[in-house]
Amino acid sequence: MFSKFQKATDKAMVFLQKKALSTLYIPKQKLHMAMNSTPPKVQPLYDLCKKTFAPSGLSSASAQPIHKLCSLLDTFGPADVGLKEESQDDDRGHGFFGLNRVARWAQPITYLDIHECDSFTMCIFCFPTSSVIPLHDHPGMTVFSKALYGSMHVKAYDWVEPACVKESREPGCPQGSPQVRLAQLVVDKVLTAPCETSILYPKSGGNLHCFTAVTPCAVLDVLAPPYREDLGRKCTYYIDYPYSTFGNGAQISKGKEEDYAWLAEIETPDDLYMRPGVYVGPAIQV
User: Fold this and answer.
1) What is the pLDDT of residues 109-150, one digit of tens each?
2) Which end of the chain is more exposed for a tag (fewer CB within 10 A), N or C?
3) Secondary structure, 3-state, the chain
């Protein structure tokens, strides 16, 4: 891996752990970066994050810091972080459903590290059309996501509490995952920029989610606290099964069967294709 990327977020390290990145090179012109002429917003975002977050998460239980962060993130566009919106023509006419699974996963997602400390991470994910970040969790974390340009489909779950766990000895279930756990679907929609900032919490808001790019798109993320495996914040990947697959005998407290799914843990997908880029937006004074 790139030495710089070894110092980036644990999230990106998990994504990239099975990739031989040393041979990758990303020309800056290919990233289509463009500086913004207006006063930088990244510094106020960093300052507010530093004030709001502690290594254990939110420094205050008050909703006011959350509101301030969302209000600031809502104002962000691609130019505020040194990006230029990608043209939808870049999908070469494939469209969202025009590629098979192999071709979809073969398109790299670019990860841009803005800042990381013990309390929070600020980063950007740039998606080509039809690229996918599979279903994964954010244990004990609060995550703010702001779509900068383009459209992406978001599917997100929260665990059903108390935990409902079943054996998964059924054909087609991943090896090494003897159990499945019931989760409730809370988000299943397409987000198109400009739109409001999305928030997920440790136990609500869709803590387990997956992204699929409908068009070329980018999302600015603030994760608090960051992924850190030695503190129990490991990024775990899942595959979801319809409720009917293992639903017999499981109680649904509200909603319909279609609002629930069984999630089985899987290894980090070998075909998750992500590469590091260079953040060239406004610098942050730490």
Assistant:
1) 999 999 999 999 999 999 999 999 999 999 999 999 999 999
2) C
3) CCHHHHCCCHHHHHHHCCCCHHHCCCCHHHHCECCCCCCCCHHHHHHHHHHHEECCEECCCCCHHHHHHHHHHCCCCHHHHCECCCCHHHHCCCCCCCCCHHHHHCCCEEEEEEEECCCCEEEEEEECCCCEEEEECCCCCEEEEEEEECEEEEEEEEECCCCCEEECCCCCCCCCCCEEEEEEEEEEEEEECCCCCEEECCCCCCCEEEEEECCCEEEEEEEECCCEHHHCECCCEEEEEEHHHHCCCCCCCCCCHHHEEEEEEECCCCCCCEEECCCCCCCCCC
